[in-house]
Specification:
7-stranded antiparallel β-sheet; globular
């Protein structure tokens, strides 16, 4: 993939010609042209009829401020052949290790926890919800939603947060205990801890 320079040569290589008066577009106008596919910008569709990966990523960063494994848009929830209690505890431990994450609520009976995540630079707060449940086959399932409170786009922050959380969970419970996506959705879902742990009081 060719790296686009910041000067006029870089604009020229991508087909962004000068505006009237001989000046090249600024960063804001360039982004607008990319998003709108405006005249004067190289076609965002390749000869094979597919959109380049960089265009997909840029559009997502500028227009999406939520990541949700339940939507299955490149993000997958988890299915483990591991007891509910172990998955639940590993998630709580992971949350506790993040200094800018705050556990706002947890309910083991319902299998839900909510977390406030504060950004490093601007101190903006995002909300993350984690669901943990057993299906009728005794498999532990995890779904995650992370959403920004403000802004139209999050520059991929929520997606990276969810991906990082689930990757660390894979490592904590053992990647060999993670089942293939085809195992998802088997049996009706029920919440609450399994028989290996007494209900919390």
């Amino acid at each position: 993939m060719e790296v686009v320079g910041s000067g006029s040569r870089g604009f020229a290589r991508r087909g962004i010609g000068p505006a009237r008066g001989g000046t090249y577009p600024g960063p804001t106008e360039t982004v607008n042209r990319i998003r709108a596919g405006a005249r004067g910008f190289a076609s965002p569709v390749s000869s094979e009829g597919t959109r380049p990966a960089w265009r997909e990523t840029l559009d997502r960063w500028l227009t999406v401020n939520v990541a949700d494994t339940r939507r299955h848009e490149g993000l997958e929830g988890r299915v483990y052949q591991v007891p509910f209690a172990r998955v639940w505890d590993e998630l709580l431990s992971d949350i506790a290790r993040h200094s800018r994450w705050s556990l706002d609520h947890k309910d083991e009976e319902l299998g839900i926890m909510t977390v406030s995540c504060r950004s490093l630079v601007f101190r903006l707060v995002d909300d993350m919800t984690i669901w943990v449940a057993l299906d009728d086959n005794g498999l532990t399932r995890v779904e995650v939603l992370s959403r920004s409170r403000v802004g139209r786009g999050d520059f991929g922050v929520n997606r990276r947060r969810v991906e990082g959380l689930l990757e660390r969970l894979d490592a904590a419970v053992g990647i060999s205990n993670r089942l293939a996506p085809s195992a998802r959705g088997v049996g009706a879902r029920r919440s609450g801890p399994p028989d290996d742990r007494p209900p919390s009081t």
